[in-house]
Amino acid sequence: MLDREMIVEALADSFEDHRLSRSERKGIHRLVGEVLDNQSRHFIRNRAFEMVLAEPSKEGLHWLHDMVKLIDQKQPQVALSKAAFSPGPDCRSTILKAIRKACSNIEVCVFTITDNEITTALIDAHARGVNLRIVTDDDKSQDYGSDIKRLKQAGVQVRMDHNPNHMHHKFALFDRENVLTGSYNWTSSAWKYNRENVVLTSDEGLVAAFIAEFDVLWRQFA
User: Fold this and answer.
1) Distance CA 93, CA 190 (A)
2) What is the distance between the alpha carbons of residues 59 and 193, in angstroms, rounded to a whole number?
3) In whole angstroms, how far apart are CA 126 and each of 57, 83, 102, 105, 178?
4) Which of 25, 60, 184, 201 is 20 to 30 A off residue 103, Cα-Cα?
């Protein structure tokens, strides 16, 4: 039987910072079990909506989306992974689809971004309310064709390393549920000419590791 008092407490704790963390997801999963009856589902959904209506904000709506998605799950998600290769459009298409599907957060940590179509998709995501943050290399941001200036002018949060060494990562997180990584720089040459690869996965352990790395760099490059 659902312990409603504990559920309300867990919802309130999670809503406090408007972010449904991985540990909070697991805690709520433990409280509700793997399958919810409709009455319990409606109770949790209604309490979550009440919290957001009492303190409306864009961040609160993102939290609500994540919470509703969580309680609608009937069982734990099986990790899904996909590999793509270039030359050819598969790597680029995988990146574009992930950007366009993101609902709440995109965190990009890529050495260089010069592909205008990817940049346009990022700006569109930012415009629809997705929290977009980018970490990139300071030297490459000055290259001819770099889209970093365009992204910053669109209001996107960008941080750079500002040291003699390179920020050489090529990964991105989507809604903190999927991570994309590989050799692929976000450039036109990468899909037209180069032998490159990307992997997109929802594996919890890998996602958690890349979240930790992104958070470290974001603080370090503040």
Assistant:
1) 12
2) 40
3) 16, 26, 10, 9, 18
4) 184
pLDDT by residue, tens only, the chain of 222 residues = 567 888 899 999 999 999 888 888 888 888 877 566 777 888 888 899 999 999 999 899 999 999 888 887 754 456 789 999 999 999 999 999 999 999 899 999 999 999 999 999 999 999 999 999 999 999 999 999 999 999 999 999 999 998 899 999 999 999 998 999 999 999 999 999 999 999 999 998 899 999 999 999 999 999
The values of phi and psi at residue 94, to 5°, are -65, -45
pTM for this predicted structure = 0.69
How many C-beta atoms lie closer than 10 Å to residue 77's C-beta?
A: 9
Residues tagged active-site: 168, 170, 175
Tokens of 112: 């260089």
Please count the residues of the chain. Answer: 222
With a CB cutoff of 8 Å and minimum separation 6, the contacts of 126 are: 132, 154, 155, 156
**Annotated domain spans of the chain:** 4-71, 81-220
Beta bridge partner(s), residue 174: 106, 178
Q: What is the CATH number of domain 81-220?
A: 3.30.870.10
